[in-house]
């Protein structure tokens, strides 16, 4: 194993991704798929100084996954296509998509200085997000066919039909739902949003649609504190800053299985934000690396036990360790 990955994967904060033997032992029985393209990676020289997001966490996570689970990465990896304008129109208004031509609108959504050239935002931010949105669409098809699929990106849960915010431009999960709704006869879709932030964009999209219900566990002390959107959350767990593993996992174990059994969804979309990590500057929660791994294992276990297709997307995560947290959980999903 190359020194860099060994160091990263065996770091003190994040337990080693030593699931390789486990992965190899299970690779014949596991059906989970993974969707990723190098085009997901975003940012430009110097962008790390303008926004805390690590735009290369996708490729870093992919490198770790390939090393810990090479067979799955080779045989169960799919490369998506970027979402087209026609697909975006399944959710977004024409007016909003037109507004995205404006540098002012884009820099507001992306929380970047408004003097950056439009072409740079287009090439290094919008295009990657179109690829990641296409990835969620492809991951939905694969989860339906094989039982579980992770898109190594996406989870842009602050984007609604006519507005982007919080670094989210395209509402990838709702777009994927609408793309496949008719073909899969989807009448009960569940979004499990465990990112540190309230998923206000998706909640606004589905506020009047009882076929899509949302389970959201988030830090209510931080952005977006969207009261209107909150009314659309069916299972609402509004937490406070600094919550630790035991309380957090207790909420999930105590309420998520009952919510799934009550609604009996045909498919689950999971927004697995790692910004609940104790070192994350935006999430402001106190969850350890082990706690995040256990959380992701619980969600995949609940779906698998009930044979409900699971689509996992990444959501937020704003530390240098974010990609390691992602890689460990995805490796487990691919192996189980
Ligand atoms: Zn977040």
What is the correct CATH architecture? 3-Layer(aba) Sandwich
Helix fraction bin: 40-55%
Report the end-to-end length measured between terminal Cα atoms.
Answer: 22 Å
**Residue-averaged pLDDT, rounded?**
90
CATH topology term? Arginase, Chain A
| Weakly predicted, low-confidence segments | 1-29
Please, what is the oligomeric state? single chain
Structural class by secondary-structure content: alpha/beta
Total DSSP E strands:
8
Biggest β-sheet: count, sense, barrel?
8 strands, parallel
Number of helical stretches of at least 4 residues: 14
What binds here, in terms of ligands, is: zinc ion
What is the count of distinct domains?
A: 1
Question: Please, what is the CATH homologous superfamily?
Answer: Histone deacetylase domain
Element-by-element helix/strand order: HHEHHEHHHHEHEHEHEHEHEH
Q: What's the Cα radius of gyration?
A: 18 Å
**What would you call the shape?**
globular
- The main sheet orders its strands as 2-1-3-8-7-4-5-6
CATH class: Alpha Beta
Name the beta content range.
5-15%
Q: What are its keywords?
A:
disordered N terminus; Arginase, Chain A; alpha/beta; 8-stranded parallel β-sheet; binds zinc ion; 14 helices; 336 residues
SSE topology:
Layout: H1 3-9, H2 20-26, E1 33-35, H3 57-68, H4 70-75, E2 77-78, H5 85-88, H6 94-99, H7 103-110, H8 118-146, E3 148-151, H9 172-180, E4 189-193, H10 200-205, E5 212-219, H11 227-230, E6 235-239, H12 245-263, E7 267-271, H13 289-305, E8 310-313, H14 322-335
Parallel strand pairs: 1-2, 1-3, 3-8, 4-5, 4-7, 5-6, 7-8
Helix pairs in contact: 2-14, 3-14, 8-9, 12-13, 13-14
The chain binds zinc ion (ZN).
């Amino acid at each position: 194993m190359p020194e860099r990955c060994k160091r990263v994967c065996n770091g003190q904060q994040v337990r080693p991704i030593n699931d390789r033997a486990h992965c190899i032992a299970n690779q014949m029985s596991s059906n989970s798929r993974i969707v990723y393209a190098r085009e997901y990676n975003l940012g430009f020289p110097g962008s790390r100084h303008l926004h805390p997001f690590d735009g290369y966490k996708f490729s870093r996570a992919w490198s770790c996954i390939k090393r810990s689970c090479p067979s799955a990465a080779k045989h169960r990896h799919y490369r998506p296509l970027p979402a087209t304008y026609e697909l975006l129109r399944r959710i977004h208004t024409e007016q909003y998509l037109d507004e995205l031509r404006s540098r002012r609108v884009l820099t507001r959504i992306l929380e970047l200085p408004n003097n950056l050239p439009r072409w740079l935002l287009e090439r290094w931010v919008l295009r990657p997000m179109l690829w990641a949105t296409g990835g969620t669409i492809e991951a939905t098809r694969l989860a339906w066919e094989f039982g579980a699929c992770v898109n190594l990106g996406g989870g842009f849960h602050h984007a609604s039909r006519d507005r982007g915010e919080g670094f989210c431009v395209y509402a990838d999960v709702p777009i994927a739902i609408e793309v496949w709704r008719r073909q899969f006869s989807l009448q009960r879709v569940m979004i499990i949003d465990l990112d540190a932030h309230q998923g206000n964009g998706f909640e606004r999209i589905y506020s009047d649609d009882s076929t899509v219900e949302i389970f959201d566990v988030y830090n209510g002390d931080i952005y977006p504190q969207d009261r209107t959107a909150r009314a659309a959350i069916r299972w609402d767990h509004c937490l406070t800053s600094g919550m630790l593993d035991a309380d957090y996992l207790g909420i999930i174990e105590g309420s998520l299985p009952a919510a799934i059994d009550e609604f009996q969804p045909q498919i689950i979309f999971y927004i697995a934000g790692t910004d609940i990590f104790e070192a994350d500057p935006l999430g402001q929660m106190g969850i350890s690396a082990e706690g995040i791994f256990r959380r992701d294992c619980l969600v995949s276990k609940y779906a698998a036990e009930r044979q409900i297709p699971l689509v996992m997307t990444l959501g937020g995560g704003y530390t240098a360790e974010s990609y390691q947290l992602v890689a460990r959980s995805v490796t487990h999903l691919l192996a189980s």
